[in-house]
Design goal:
Elements (H helix, E strand, L loop, with lengths): L4 H4 L2 H16 L3 H15 L5 E8 L2 E8 L8 E3 L3 H9 L3 E3 L17 E9 L2 E10 L7 H14 L7
Antiparallel strand pairs: 1-2, 1-6, 2-3, 4-5, 5-6
Helix pairs in contact: 2-3, 2-5
Bound molecules: methionine sulfoxide.
The site of methionine sulfoxide (SME) has 14 residues, from helix 4 and strand 6.
């Protein structure tokens, strides 16, 4: 017998998803909503050290709202470059357990040891992604991936208009 997804999901993820839904519904506009979502992810999950959203702009990813200890110099990343660009090119969630072992990794912060990148889709098309850096190795697992894929679906309507 199969179990409902909600029973398998860690409680923290279910609670955070409800907060994300509320933030998206209640924010003044799409940019404010996207900022609230990154703030909320950062605040609720201590291992999410730096949380940002990149939006697709032509053949690049452009940094949107972010929260973390430092700004990144990678505010525009060509699709296909780095872990971020790989996820955008393939449409697949990337979990990098050890950034020192991944030749694609574009370094942003000296403290980063692991990373997760989750595409945001509109229909079948990648329109953006959630990028999270952690300062521990193996900070992200499949439960984070499934949770962040649900968050990504809620972010899709918040893409800035060209
Ligand atoms: N590390 C990313 C670049 C973005 S920064 O982590 C914010 C990458 O390899 O694509």
């Amino acid at each position: 017998m199969s179990h409902p997804v909600a029973e398998e999901r860690p409680a923290a993820h279910g609670d955070a998803l409800n907060l994300v839904r509320a933030a998206v519904a209640e924010a003044a506009g799409p940019a404010a909503a996207a900022q609230r979502v990154v703030d909320l992810l950062h605040d609720r999950f201590p291992q999410y050290d730096w949380v940002g959203i990149y939006w697709v702009d032509g053949s690049d990813l452009v940094l949107g709202p972010w929260v973390g200890p430092e700004a990144t110099e990678h505010t525009r990343i060509p699709i296909g470059t780095g872990v971020c660009g790989a996820a955008a090119a393939t449409g697949r969630t990337e979990i990098v357990p050890d950034v020192d072992q991944d030749p694609r990794y574009l370094a942003c912060f000296a403290s980063t040891r692991s990373e997760i990148v989750v595409p945001i889709f509109d229909g079948g098309e990648v329109i953006g992604e959630i990028d999270i850096d952690g300062s521990d190795r193996d900070a992200f697992d499949e439960a984070d991936a499934r949770f962040l894929e649900e968050v990504a679906a809620l972010l899709a309507p918040l893409r800035p208009r060209a």
